[in-house]
Amino acid sequence: MVKDFGKWLLPLLLAASGACLADPAMAQGRGGPPAGLPAGLPPATPGGLPGGFPGGPPDMPSRGPPPWAADAAGNRVDGIARADAVRSQAMAEPERRRATARYKADPAAYELDRNGALAIRGEVLATGLDGADLAKIERKGFSILRRDEIAGLGTTLAVLERGGTPAAKALHILRRIAPQGTYALNHVMFESGAGAGSAPPRARQPAAGGRAVRVGMIDTGVAPAVGSSARVRLVSRNFAQGAGSAEQHGTAVAELLARAPGDVTIYAADIFGPDPHDGTSELLIRALGWMAGQRVPVVNISMVGPPNPIVGAVTGKLIGLGFTIVAPVGNDGPAARPLYPASYPGVVAVSAAGADGRLLPEASRVRRVDFVAPGIATVAGISGRGAEVRGTSFAAPLVSRLLADRLDDPDPEAARRAIAELAREAQRPRKDRRWFGHGLVAESADAR
Predict the structure, then answer these.
(1) Which of 279, 321, 428, 444 is least crowded, fewest Cβ atoms below 10 Å from its Cβ?
(2) pTM greater than the 0.90 cutoff
(3) pLDDT value at position 18?
(4) Would the CA dihedral through 54, 60, 62, 68 be positive or negative?
């Protein structure tokens, strides 16, 4: 299937006016560039156009599901068979255990979907519905819990429920009532990293010309101390219910984004909080809308979760408009399965290595990886005393910063060039090449 898709994609890249926008974030770096592409660029693979969508930048579907999610199994994209499209599949065992533990701790707040992913009980996300659709849905016994225009995305997101009906069943009922809408469970995501650690990683590439860098992150709350340096400006916004608070995970990610030389403004969206409705697809979508409104060129999302059609459509639109989204592949080791948002088309997927340049044992072994960066670091953290962190969550911000150093504003062509430049700088290992994508792009202090 992949070969068939490649045969279709190459002529399109050569013939279409948007061919120059081929996105090397989806390439896996084998061999030279296809004929007709600039020398030095990684070869194009399925999803080579911005956002991984045939034909270039996509719009949010006003009616019906996004093209890549044309069927539940994710096997067709605009009528083209494609084996590596976003698919619905059982979660890897570590993710299933984590989801099950949280579900058992509060079954009134959560439910598990058929693949073992965690979701908010009874809630269904919906886009592409007008007033008449929603009135029809309400007559069938559904309630509209929340309905808002997502700033920066030009779409309206509704959260629906039907009292006492599990979300998975409610979703199927909604598809029968208003099949033109796009629906998804309100999945819950998890941070992709944990405590452990060694020496701090150091990015090799400082900001060009001493200019201020702008980079975004969607994570837990960040300690205000991160913005205490004269060269670091922290712009925070809380999307979770209840008062936001600093957490170790988000603080570590922010510190790593700020660690390279030069002035930097970090836009930090907190989607985690004290309420069970934290870390959800809904809050992630709202945070992405904020990033779009702020015109932040690179957004780091150090989280993992299941595929979600609406989140996938939103990321696809943003990538098509020139935003660069970076995410970790996860920490499920050799038994890993694709996690999201890293596995959405066009997202820059990052794995993690130790000081010796080898993949961390827990780093997910998945084919969909673009870069590897050091995943072990010592950070000041919320205590200020120094804390050790480890995992793909802490490799992703190094790649995000390296890309943000090259980008002033969201722009498809500039993003393509930045990723291609980083790919040319990457160092490929002698072993385990298939898990390194373009290669290792940052050094650890211990490795020198």
Answers:
(1) 428
(2) no
(3) 34
(4) positive
